[in-house]
Amino acid sequence: MPARFHFSLEPVLELRRIREREAMVRVAEVERERLALEGRIRTLTSDADRARTELRDCLSGPSRQMSLRGVGLQANTMFSLHGQTHAGALALAGVLRRLEMARAALLKASTDRKAVERLRERRFDEWRHANARAQSRADDEIASVASARTLAVEANAASAKHESESLEIAAAERNWQ
């Protein structure tokens, strides 16, 4: 039974797999943060657009029922929403930078893992070929031994037959004399 393959760098490979999974988790966390910020920015933009439309309707409408104080409050709300949208966009820019860095770290971790896996595959192929060569040598040795035995048995049989024939000839010669 051939020996089992043992890769001496298996702990390194496992560590690289763990680091890659951790990098994947970091990318997913930052991606979730990005999606949440984008959703928040969309909501703020929608609210600001709605506030601007309401203010425009109040100022240009025929009834002009809104007081100056109401117009000021509506304008403040609209500007506040725009400010929050701008702050969200700045925060999103930071998150996008972090996402880019997290993806780069994931790419490096994947590359590092794949390098060790390729090394493992090469070593496994070398081990498998060495086992095949050893098995072939063992098979050749067995065939050589079997062939040598067969030749020895045949030689012994031929020698015994020759000896038996020689004895028969000698006996026949004695009988003729």
Q: Tell me roughly what share of residues is in helical segments.
A: over 70%
For the CA atoms, what is the radius of gyration? Answer: 45 Å
Work out the helix count: 2
The profile of the biggest β sheet is:
none
Overall 3D form? rod-shaped
Distance between the termini: 66 Å
Report the β-strand fraction as a percent range: under 5%
Structural class by SSE content: mainly alpha
Quaternary status = single chain
Low-confidence stretches: none
Q: What do the pLDDT scores average to?
A: 86
Q: What is the H/E string?
A: HH
Total DSSP E strands: 0
Q: Could you explain how this protein is built, in words?
A:
The mean pLDDT is 86. The chain contains two helices and no strands. The two termini are 66 Å apart. It is mainly α.
Secondary-structure map:
Elements (H helix, E strand, L loop, with lengths): L9 H51 L7 H109 L1
Helix pairs in contact: 1-2
Compose a concise summary of this entry.
The protein has 177 residues and is mostly helical.
Relevant terms:
177 residues, mainly alpha, 90% helix, rod-shaped
